[in-house]
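Researcher: We plan to redesign the surface later, but first we want a full-length starting point. Tokens attached.
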């Protein structure tokens, strides 16, 4: 049985996933074993995140059935500018083309002034895609 795993996401976007531990636990239930060099696909929020298995203990191939494992997620090897999510800021228009049958995922960010307003008032944020 595995006791430790070191995983490395392909892109920085996985750092934005809240409660990574729960998401990883749910996705690892689909696997019986892990081996160093494996590429895990973690499905969350309509996005597929790929994480490489860099290190395992006590051996290079372990069972993940009914075991508690310590998991470290390290920084991706690829440049931080690469992303599967397209960054959008509230109040900053953007444009682009998404081909029929394809998907594009967006990450919305807001400035501190708007965040404070949302925290203290009842605010509706409307996103319009045309």
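Model: Full-length starting sequence:
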């Amino acid at each position: 049985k595995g006791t430790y795993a070191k995983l490395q996401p392909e892109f920085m976007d996985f750092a934005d996933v809240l409660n990574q531990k729960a998401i990883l636990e749910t996705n690892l239930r689909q696997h019986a074993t892990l081996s160093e060099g494996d590429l895990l696909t973690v499905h969350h929020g309509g996005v597929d995140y790929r994480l490489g298995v860099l290190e395992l203990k006590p051996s290079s191939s372990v069972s993940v059935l009914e075991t508690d494992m310590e998991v470290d997620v390290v920084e991706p090897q690829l440049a931080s500018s690469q992303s599967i999510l397209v960054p959008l800021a509230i109040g900053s228009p953007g444009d682009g083309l998404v081909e029929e049958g394809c998907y594009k995922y967006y990450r919305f960010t807001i400035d501190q002034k708007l965040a404070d307003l949302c925290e203290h008032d009842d605010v509706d944020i409307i996103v319009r895609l045309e």
